[in-house]
Amino acid sequence: MAEAAAKLLEVRELTMDFGGLRAVDSVTLEVCENEIVALIGPNGAGKTTFFNCVTGIYKPTRGEILVHPPNGQSRKINGMKPNRVTEIGMARTFQNIRLFQNMTVLENVMIGRHCRTNTSILGAILRSPKVLGEERETVEKGYSLLEKVGLADVADEFAKNLPYGAQRRLEIARAMATDPFLLLLDEPAAGMNPQETKELDELIVRIGKEEGIAILLIEHDMKLVMNISERIYVMEYGKKIAQGSPQEIRTNPKVIEAYLGEGGDDA
Amino acid sequence: MLKVNSINTFYGNIQALKGVSLEVHEGEIVTLIGANGAGKTTTLMSLCGIVPPRSGEILFQGKPIHGLPGDKIVELGVIQVPEGRRIFPNMTVLENLEMGAYLRKNKLLIKQDLNMVMDLFPILAQRRNQLGGTLSGGEQQMLAISRALMARPRLLLLDEPSLGLAPIIIQQIFDIIRKINRENNTTIFLVEQNANQALKLAHRGYVMENGRITLADSAANLLTNEEVKTAYLGI
Amino acid sequence: ADTFKIGVAGPHTGDLAPYGIPTKEAAMMLAEQVNAAGGLLGKKVEVIPMDDQCKPEIATNAATKLVSEGARIVIGHVCSGATKAALGIYKEAKVIAISPSATNPPLTQSGDYPNFYRTIASDDMQGKLAADFVTGKLGAKRIAIIHDKGDYGKGFADFAKKFIEEGGKAEVVMYEGITPGAMDYSAVIQKVRRVKADAVIFGGYHPEASKLVAQLKKKRVKAAFVGPDGIKGDGFLEIAGKKAEGVYATGPMDVTKYEENKKARAAYVKKYGKEPGTFFDQGYAAMQAALAAIKAAGGTDYAALEKALRNNYVDTAVGRIKFDAKGDAEGVGFSVYQVQNGKFVEL
Amino acid sequence: MDYFLELLCSGLTRGSIYALIALGYTMVYGIIQLINFAHGEIYMIGAFVALIVSGVLTIYGFSGFSILVLAGLIAMIYAAAYGYTLEKIAYQPLRNAPRLSPLISAIGASLFLQNYVLLAQTPDFLPFPELIPEFAFMEPVAHIMGSSELVILVTSAISMVVLTLLIKYTRIGKAMRATQQDMVMARLVGINVDRVISVTFIIGSVLAAIGGVLVGSYIGQINFYIGFMAGVKAFTAAVLGGIGNIPGAALGGLVLGLAESMAAGYISSAYEDVFAFGVLVLILILRPAGLLGKAVKQKV
Amino acid sequence: MFNVLKRSVLVALWFVFLTFPLMVVKVNTLKNIVEWRWLNMLWVFIVAFFLHLFWRWALDKRQLRSKKAELEDEGLMAPTLGQRILQDPRLYRPLLGVLAAVAILFPWILDVYQVNIMVLALIFVVLGLGLNITVGLAGLLDLGYVAFFAVGAYSYALIHQHFPVLGFWACLPIGGLIGALFGVVLGFPILRLRGDYLAIVTLGFGSIAKIVIENWEEVTNGAKGIANIPRPGFFGMEMSIGAATTYTYYLMILMVIFTIFVTNRLKDSRIGRAWMALREDEIACVAMGVDMARTKLSAYALGAFWAGAVGVIFAARNTYINPNSFTFMESAIVLSIVVLGGMGSIVGVIIAALILILMPEYLRAFADYRMLVFGAVMVLMMIFRPQGLIANVRKTYAHRRPAAEENNG
Ligand SMILES: Nc1ncnc2c1ncn2[C@@H]1O[C@H](COP(=O)(O)OP(=O)(O)OP(=O)(O)O)[C@@H](O)[C@H]1O
Ligand SMILES: Nc1ncnc2c1ncn2[C@@H]1O[C@H](COP(=O)(O)OP(=O)(O)OP(=O)(O)O)[C@@H](O)[C@H]1O
Ligand SMILES: CC(C)C[C@H](N)C(=O)O
Ligand SMILES: [Mg+2]
Ligand SMILES: [Mg+2]
């Protein structure tokens, strides 16, 4: 466990109902600075819904979501608009890739910079030196991020023309462009083969360690999860059923029964 | 049973398949593995007439089927479980299953098959009146396979059945595929990212890269092939 | 030039086409007759049809096009709005416009458009006639006024309202606009019943009028129905059929008695196999006036044409007319009609 | 009270016609996400064909009820044929085109059909024969609801019930639903998607023709332009109910008809359309997916 | 070959069947006469037959073309001639020069009529470019765009009536701003609506605007319209119509250039990117920190701004306005311009506007068949160029960022 590290995200008793269905049921979870935390559980356990609540896409039925930005004020973000959440410093990727398909790779990343820049309409028309400077900075930042995820040489390609794995990495780069302190990744390895997954593994670790960005990760690929996460939460039917280190989780009978199955991690 | 002779398939101006040839024999499980975007899904879509190849030929039981419209190919018994499951979201589980048997007329046999798949996946029997769109990923995958079985496939095409599923479910799915192959004697053509498991299950395998078949061998051989090991098994 | 070019501008496509096409047909028919008889002053008459869809911006296009093609006289435009937009262009180019249907009073009364003439009377005259008739002869006490929101219909309705209120003999109990082209008017009809009106004055054209009349009958409302010349025509009789019985309309004094009118209509029926549409008479008359003016002026000199139009009486499909100083036709008087046995009968 | 009933009845009558046309809109939209702007023109053509047929039949000595049935049937056949052809020419080649392209094609087709009828027939309004007889037993309430209104209400109710049953229980209905939800998967279970789309256009067109014939004989006149207004209103009704949703279209039509009628009756008919669209905006603000549209939170 | 002919015969027969009641029969219910126009049947057959042959040929050719394109360079779309010209400065610079020369000389070569309709076409170019912001860039389908146009036109007419001191030049920006204001006001309630729901509501707003203008007689003068609106002034100089038209023409040319300049800069900026992202995926866009409400409203407002501004010019050009100019048809035409031009493509919009507005004028030769042909051409253009005339493929963002980075960094 991250020793005495500052908490970044603190979720208390989060509940989300869809009509009669309780998709998330009193889940409590926290993420600290410099941590990589995983959230696993069977299909339909409510993991993505949990993300959606935290990032403001859904307004949770009950519970509290608190953020403590490293250099800012702590605040409750229940029901806050997604763009505000992102501005505060939590960015995400999507389970079903949601890139801006008909924009170039670089533009996708530049959108991530939107909330960190402030050119106005008039500014855009007049193109003052300040605006030009900001634009240049956006491009540069975008490039350096693309380099980090290995996409710099396809920067002018349309996002839709990228191979799947590259699209996943682009999503990560786009999220990082918002300068988050916490990155939420929803099944980043889905649809990747073991080789690609391995590269992804390295990328995530690098982001976590080198950039000092904390990571909360949903994933079904146990090899990846066990490899990189420091702590794991397990959900089933909307409830949290376990939490602990990879070792603890791997051997937790409840988790084995609900999720891993026998010989789980070779999947 | 199935013979594909150097087909070329395009999306608009993008060539996704470049001279792909392969064969599947009666009763076999054959797997096609390859990286993302290699063209595996496209291969299946070409077989089913959804994205017909521009050139080359596809023979099913000796007869050419390229250029036939999709519904005619389904009629011949070539049934696909598509990538992403594609459950009809606003139909109940039962209706989804009935759609699988859309081209069949014999009510009695359909009823029989309904019971058969519900035995195979008891959870579906429990959920029979729930809307397909509200099922969890694993349930949807089972429903998708069952829906295909409802068509009495001669050749079952499976596209990444393990995608996005929990480990425990993946195991179940693979067990069931094996069972279908053994008990119903259904020929299976399996597309997978999860090369390890797929090769363990299959008799033979093809490796696809950038729209071309680059390797073809028995599954056992592929499992020990060095290239495959490093590129697809992540070892 | 070896031909006299006469423009015919109006809506020939779009929803208002029914008001523009009859005039176009009338003008072309007349030109054909004249040409077949050897032309005018030894020259052929060429009709240039111009669609303006009753839209001001297209009307200016049409107008400039006509001017640049050398038309010296234009029959049109049909809608007052389009006419206003086009008149500025004609004025500068010294082109004469004779409209068969633009009834908006200021077109002549404002004095802004010295080159404008019309073979139809303006809205205010009929409004007065209708008001007097309803309150006088019909003795109605509670009057409902309905209009189609268009400049013509509403203009007529407004004048009728004004004169009724000034007359003080009856009360306007309902004043309401309807949307032309709406599926039905039953809600408005129910309103007429509710206010217990004993007469309905309608400002607008025959399609809406016949819908209203039919629905009044269907809903068993027994108020008298009075419309302007926009409904006084065969179109109304045809569409409303039996339901038209008893309906009143104001309109130019019976024109069917004129020789020219009979001739024109007979020729039209022969040629097209149907009754002529709205503003046919006025369109025909406008073209006749134009041709006569050219003949009298011995060409298309603006001043000469003007003089001819203002001074010479011409026999036309709407009677023997000439134009007054403002451009309104003299000799187009009004009377009230009632449908009796499927015909408009002058009262 | 009587006044209210009167308005109610006129609103329902108008609304059920909107509903009939809206069904075609909604079905087509459901299946290929196309706003078929030319649908109103099909309605107009249906009415025209009925007018022509009944005219010819009258001249050849047919009478009364047989004219109504024959004219109605032939109008339906022709509307279906036009709907089918329209789809084949203007929409099918655009199956894979960007979203808005077929919309523009639809607007073009609508203009074309209007002017085609204008040129082939006449720009004038034509009297439409009264095909629906006056029932004597309706006389006492005729000021509230006439025979035509009764026939309209009953016919559209029956049409809607039949359509609902058709979609729920027949094979083609199921195929339509499947195609609506996932066109690729529909093909993978063996559905001939092109045929399903054609059938959808045909059914929608037939309903529109029924609407055309009913309206024609109710208000007694038609011209080449009546499809435009009807089309816009029906489209509004379809959206109001939740576009793509069949009961929604029916409900939307009725709500719209009632809103218009009440607005005209209690406020002013000059602003009838303002109220119609006002109701639409209001409902969509409260329920962004229409009355019966499922306001699903987008699953991400 | 025989098969093709047979098919065409069948198709022609189908059309004969289809058009039979409308083309052949004509009844007069009053007089009880039927007119049988059998000759029309023959015409339909012949026309349908040849059109079908042509249709097959054209479709085959279209297929052939796409096949050829894919052989030429695998993967990427072969740039069309249009795109190639746009991408290569050596090609487009001289072309631009020629274009500029033609634009400047135009009024001196051609007559007032041509200049006059060109002014109208240019007005629609600006409308197209404005709507292109809302629909093409931000992906917000708007079927009631004409409302803003009307707002601009009436602003000028009314301001002129009540405050004659404010001349055309003052009204031009005021019209734009009032338009933008309406854009924001109308945009607010419909922020949450998506796709086609938006379409119908905007269509509703369009009709409401017209109805209000029609009915609110005290202010707008209703259906009577407003006459005697002054043409654009030039230091109070008296001008003949010809001169005024020419003057308006140059004014419009400047306006178009200004619009292109501004929209281009916007498109290429932080704001423009946010619009496009919104168009591509609303949820992802919001999740990436873009304020949806503000972005959407700015797209509405800026789109409406141009409509308002150019509405002022429109009123000045016509000198008379009434509600007839602001119907759904106008909205549909502007939308068609955007789609036909190729969503988001500025050059495409310009070409499409010129085609769609000038075409009906040049089709005047066809007289009665004018709108029929117009409708058919709209359908055909969509079928043969579904992506629009000039697809907005990589043109805008093709400028090489790395180069920019090297130069400046
Ligand atoms: N918008 C929604 N409306 C209704 N039900 C929903 C919605 N979103 C999610 N659900 C339901 O909530 C439950 C949890 O879904 P969620 O997507 O969070 O699962 P998950 O844990 O992410 O599963 P997976 O691993 O398959 O992605 C499921 O039963 C799902 O059907
Ligand atoms: N609808 C489409 N339009 C254009 N290009 C496509 C389309 N679908 C796939 N492609 C392209 O075709 C190529 C092959 O894709 P395909 O989906 O067949 O790969 P795959 O092997 O199934 O990959 P995955 O493992 O991601 O499912 C890829 O480059 C992809 O980008
Ligand atoms: C065709 C009609 C609308 C013309 C009307 N009389 C007018 O003055 O505008
Ligand atoms: Mg999930
Ligand atoms: Mg695939």
Q: Keywords for this structure?
A:
heteropentamer; B: 235 residues; alpha/beta; Rossmann fold; 2 domains; six-stranded mixed β-sheet; four-stranded antiparallel β-sheet; 10 helices; 40% helix; 27% strand; D: 300 residues; mainly alpha; two-stranded antiparallel sheet; 11 helices; 2 strands; 1% strand; binds adenosine-5'-triphosphate; binds leucine; binds magnesium ion; Branched-chain amino acid transport system permease protein (chain D); BCAA_transport_permease (chain D); cell membrane (chain D); amino-acid transport (chain D)
Describe this protein's structure:
Chain B: One of its GO terms (biological process) is L-amino acid transport. Chain B: This is Amino acid/amide ABC transporter ATP-binding protein 2 (HAAT family). Chain B: Pfam families: ABC_tran (PF00005). Chain B: Residues 2-235 form the ABC transporter domain. Chain B: One of its GO terms (molecular function) is ATP binding. The complex is a heteropentamer of chains A (267), B (235), C (347), D (300) and E (409). With 267 residues, chain A is of the alpha/beta class. Chain A folds into two domains: 1-89 and 180-267, Rossmann fold; 99-178, no CATH class. Chain A has helices spanning 47-54, 82-88, 105-112, 121-126, 129-149, 164-176, 194-210, 222-228, 246-251, 253-260, and strands at 7-18, 21-32, 36-40, 62-67, 75-76, 90-92, 182-186, 214-218, 231-236, 239-244. In chain A, the strands form two sheets. In chain A, strands 6-7-8-3-9-10 form a six-stranded mixed beta sheet, sandwiched between helices. In chain A, strands 2-1-4-5 form a four-stranded antiparallel beta sheet, with helices on one face. The longest helix of chain A is centred in the middle third of the chain and has 21 residues, at 129-149. Chain B has two domains: 2-77 and 153-233, P-loop containing nucleotide triphosphate hydrolases (Rossmann fold, 3-Layer(aba) Sandwich), CATH 3.40.50; 87-152, no CATH class. Chain B contains ten helices and ten strands. In chain B, the strands form two sheets. A six-stranded mixed beta sheet of chain B has the order 6-7-8-3-9-10, with helices on both faces. Chain B has a four-stranded antiparallel beta sheet with strand order 2-1-4-5, with helices on one face. Chain B is globular. The model of chain B has no long low-confidence stretch (mean pLDDT 88). In chain D, helix 1 (2-32) runs antiparallel to helix 8 (193-219) and helix 10 crosses helix 11 (272-286). Chain D has helices at residues 2-32, 39-59, 64-91, 101-120, 147-169, 171-181, 183-188, 193-219, 226-241, 246-267, 272-286, and strands at residues 126-127, 221-222. Chain D has one domain. Chain D is mainly alpha-helical and 300 residues long. Chain E is mainly alpha-helical. Chain E folds into two domains: 2-64, no CATH class; 99-384, no CATH class. Chain E has a two-stranded antiparallel sheet with strand order 1-2. The longest helix of chain E has 35 residues, at 38-72. Chains D and E meet through helix 2, helix 3, helix 4, strand 1 and helix 9 of D and helix 1, strand 1, helix 8, helix 14 and helix 16 of E. One magnesium ion (MG) is lined by residues 47-48, 95 of chain A.
